[in-house]
């Protein structure tokens, strides 16, 4: 099973909260406005970094009474003020993926002298081997799927000849997009004066690092580890990069096999099944759990399976492990040996043209010098508290050391890494900040899309039982939405999980057209602590898909007299 999101309802830290108390004034309220970013504007328009800088400066001067304007000017014209205490940098970030990039840009905005160490390429997994190129392939699959649907086209009065594609052209589209975003990220860092240090970064001790092949030693007041993750390949699986592949290889689209087995039916597996079936492949899912799409809300997963899997050239095995996979060679196809997930008894042997391993991702935390600071990983993840501060083997905080993104395992999403990085920069700049991970949305970019934020219904019921409150469910259908019907895309559902006694949103799940875009109204409401009794008064343009959320919020039955008090974000 792919594990893209890891949210624990228990305490996020293995040490007591009293042991990690922040030195800031305890009387000051926790921040309600949480700032999130994935690929910021600078990633798409280098010139925009200068325009945005002037805008940020104006806003800063207008709204901050205690600001240090010299730091702002320094951040815009030379990578911050000279660091205090004899350090080479105020902040050094190991890893230039989306998380590291977001942290670096925010650090410069805060006036911190910043460097970023990258041992591979700027952009990390998301830009080069993940979110960005996969969306290019999914854009192609969406158009192919629509052009191939004769009934759908005729409903618009359109006649389209048989659709075809050029495999290399499709692959080039994905590669060119990744290259463009990577170059823009690099230019944005350079334009803001962030020092890009090439090579592998290693922590030598408190506030001390080295990078590259030589003895390039630097010091920093604070250090952020943002090294990301790599594809997880279970034991017994031999990857040759041609017929047995990971998502890294699949994104190159070097071939479109007639029959491909996909091991894992989470986000990665589902998205690639959308691509491969649109391009003509037959797909077989191999899932260790007893049902497909195990990470989704069960009701949404059931509907999505009826639309995304059942009508397509997809079959599946559930409750089984792929105990051994052998690449194709000497004229023989790929061999997959299946065993029962519970009894470990042999179940079947498959012979397919290719196999994609989509069993999730593993943290990339080797070679960081963690032993130098007495830090032991947990299943490869670096342990952190709710403020992303690294915890050593004795349960104590490592001073001035933070870890964000996939490497800490809290929530393995690019935009979560960026949000964590921004949160850390706030802290090292003197502003206490705790990120509410339950407000961070996730999306699967199939056709139609799936999106979610907060708790699933089973998780919410478990929480309600433990804490002694009731939950309610509200639903709306895309079939009642004018814009969806105009697009002939009425297949879809939005689901709201909430507390009727307070109006608090516990979770929202959407399956339907542009679900990935619609979810943010719900995620921002959770982040800001906005209650349903307030959202009912929000106005949405007509006719738009946003009215799906409008109807969803209005259909919720909140108890009369429920408080409008804004809820404080809860660290998870």
What does this structure look like?
The chain has 572 residues and is of the alpha/beta class. It is built from 16 helices and 23 strands. The longest helix is centred in the N-terminal third of the chain and has 25 residues. The two termini are 23 Å apart. The relative contact order is 0.13.
Highlighted features:
five-stranded parallel sheet; 16 helices; 31% helix; disordered N terminus
What does this entry show, briefly?
With 572 residues, the chain is α/β, with parallel strands linked by helices. It is built from 16 helices and 23 strands. The strands form five sheets. Strands 1, 2, 3, 4, 5, 6, 17 and 18 form an eight-stranded mixed β-sheet that branches. Strands 8-15-9-10-11 form a five-stranded parallel β-sheet.
What order do the helices and strands come in, and which of them pair?
Elements: H1 48-63, H2 69-78, E1 89-94, H3 98-109, E2 114-118, H4 124-129, H5 131-148, H6 150-155, H7 167-191, E3 195-198, E4 201-205, E5 208-211, E6 216-225, E7 229-231, E8 244-246, H8 247-250, E9 259-263, H9 267-278, E10 282-287, H10 298-308, E11 314-318, E12 320-326, E13 334-340, E14 346-352, E15 354-357, E16 361-363, E17 389-391, E18 397-403, H11 414-428, E19 442-444, E20 449-454, H12 457-467, E21 472-477, H13 482-486, E22 493-498, E23 505-512, H14 515-528, H15 532-535, H16 547-555
Parallel strand pairs: 1-2, 1-6, 2-3, 6-18, 8-15, 9-10, 9-15, 10-11
Antiparallel strand pairs: 4-5, 5-6, 7-16, 12-13, 13-14, 17-18, 19-20, 20-23, 21-22, 22-23
Helix pairs in contact: 1-2, 3-11, 5-7, 5-9
């Amino acid at each position: 099973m792919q594990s893209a999101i890891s949210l624990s309802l228990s305490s996020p830290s293995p040490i007591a909260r009293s042991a990690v108390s922040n030195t800031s004034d305890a009387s000051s309220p926790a921040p309600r406005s949480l700032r999130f970013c994935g690929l910021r504007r600078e990633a798409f328009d280098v010139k925009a970094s200068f325009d945005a800088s002037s805008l940020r400066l104006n806003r800063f001067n207008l709204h901050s009474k205690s600001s240090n304007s010299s730091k702002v000017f320094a951040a815009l014209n030379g990578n911050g003020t000279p660091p205090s205490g004899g350090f080479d940098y105020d902040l050094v970030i190991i890893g230039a993926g989306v998380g590291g990039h977001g942290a670096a840009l925010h650090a410069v905005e805060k006036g911190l002298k910043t460097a970023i160490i990258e041992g591979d390429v700027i952009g990390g997994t998301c830009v080069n081997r993940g979110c960005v190129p996969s969306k290019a392939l999914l854009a192609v699959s969406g158009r192919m799927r629509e052009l191939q649907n004769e009934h759908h086209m005729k409903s618009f009065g359109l006649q389209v000849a048989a659709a075809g594609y050029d495999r290399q052209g499709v692959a080039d589209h994905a590669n060119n997009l990744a290259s463009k975003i990577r170059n823009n990220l690099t230019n944005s860092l350079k334009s803001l004066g962030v020092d890009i240090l090439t090579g592998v970064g290693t922590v030598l001790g408190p506030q001390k690092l080295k990078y590259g092949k030589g003895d390039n030693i630097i010091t920093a007041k604070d250090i952020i580890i943002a090294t990301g993750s790599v594809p997880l390949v279970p034991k017994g699986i031999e990857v040759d990069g041609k017929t047995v592949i990971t998502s890294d290889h699949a994104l190159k689209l070097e071939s479109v096999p007639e029959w491909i087995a996909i091991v894992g039916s989470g986000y990665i597996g589902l998205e690639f099944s959308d691509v491969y079936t649109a391009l003509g492949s037959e797909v077989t899912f191999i899932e260790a759990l007893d049902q497909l799409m195990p990470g989704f809300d069960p009701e949404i997963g059931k509907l999505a399976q009826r639309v995304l899997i059942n009508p397509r050239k997809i079959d599946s095995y559930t409750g089984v492990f792929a105990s051994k996979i052998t690449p194709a060679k000497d004229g023989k196809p790929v061999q997959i040996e299946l065993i029962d997930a519970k009894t470990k008894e042999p179940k079947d042997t498959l012979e397919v043209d290719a196999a994609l391993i989509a069993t999730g991702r593993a943290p990339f935390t080797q070679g960081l010098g963690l032993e130098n600071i007495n830090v032991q990983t947990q299943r490869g993840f670096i342990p952190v508290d709710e403020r992303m501060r690294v915890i050593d083997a004795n349960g104590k905080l490592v001073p001035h050391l933070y870890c964000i993104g996939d490497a800490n395992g809290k929530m393995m999403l690019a935009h979560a890494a960026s949000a964590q990085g921004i949160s850390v920069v706030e802290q090292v700049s003197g502003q206490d900040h705790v990120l509410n991970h339950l407000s961070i949305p996730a999306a699967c970019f199939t056709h139609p899309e799936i999106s979610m934020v907060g708790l699933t219904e089973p998780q919410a019921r478990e929480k309600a039982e433990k804490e002694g409150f009731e939950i309610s469910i509200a639903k709306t259908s895309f079939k009642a939405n004018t814009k969806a019907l105009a697009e002939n895309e009425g297949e879809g559902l939005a689901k709201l999980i909430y507390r009727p006694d307070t109006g608090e949103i516990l979770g929202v799940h959407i399956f339907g057209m542009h679900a990935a875009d619609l979810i943010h109204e719900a995620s921002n409401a959770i982040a800001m602590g906005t209650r349903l009794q307030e959202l009912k008064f929000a106005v949405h343009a007509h006719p738009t898909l946003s009215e799906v959320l409008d109807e969803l919020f209005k259909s919720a039955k909140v108890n009369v007299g429920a408080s409008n008090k804004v809820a404080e974000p809860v660290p998870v």
